[in-house]
Amino acid sequence: MGAIVVLTVLGAVDVTVTVLGFLRPSTSPPAPGIADEVFDGVAEGVAVDYLSWDARNRERRGQVLRRWAVPDREVDGWDGQGRQSADSTAVLGRTRRGVDQAVVTVRVRVVPYTPDEQSGSQNPSTQPPGEGSDSSSRADEPGVPAAQPTSADAPGWRALPARWLVLAVPLARHGDHVLLTAPPALVGDPGTTLPEPVPAVEAVNDDRFTRDTRQAVRSFFEALATGELDFVRAPRARITSLRNAAVLVELRQWRGVQSQPGAPPGQRAGVASVVWRIAENAGQLTCTYRVGLHRQEDRWLLAGIDIDTGKTP
Question: Is the pTM of this model over 0.85?
Fold first, then answer.
């Protein structure tokens, strides 16, 4: 009984406040916006699933990604070939786009695979899913399905040394969830300072500017892959390369837009879709970027690059 009295005397205020807090929870509204930790957690899960694929089990990855995405939004940029497994993640940076939107940059460890020619089997990338492959997510499957290949030593594949990729993941609140609003895109390691985002492009297409700058834009992405940015990067532009983690296959689309009223004449922008081949030919990804250009004397230079976040839900 004495112990109870001592506790009451010494901690009456604290204990009373705690108990009343349980009995009468605070009715004050929660802080507006999504917490950074929520964005980071979703981005890490998306990054693992997005960088995991298996040509013998294509349908599963598509179903998994649809769970992450805004309804009816196409977010799968993979070409359906090759095999790759992703696991360890680390958030490198986060750019908030309002209280309910963000782009999170995530470093991901991946293990690419190559067809094992010594096994004598047919290239598994060209074979349709076999009877034993789990080509879809079963209704009775426990937990939340993931896209990672189920076996590290699948017949016909040979694992290659692991490496790191960096992925930018665009997210936004949709109802009670944080979901993917557009396909993620490969980016360079942001280092200690995130680059300034390129403004969203909502202006009218400029066909002549598009034609005149298409080759320059292709050169920008070639340099982004290899790291030879000194010859194409505008002064003071903070752009880092992919460090040969991917090879440019093609500039699939480039859309330059007309200048905004009042904008400096030497500053332009556009949207580019490119196809990357992951090193060791583990597969291909189509990524879309916003590109900022700066004219210096008689040539255009790369002033900024950002991922396309899609239209907000």
Answer: no
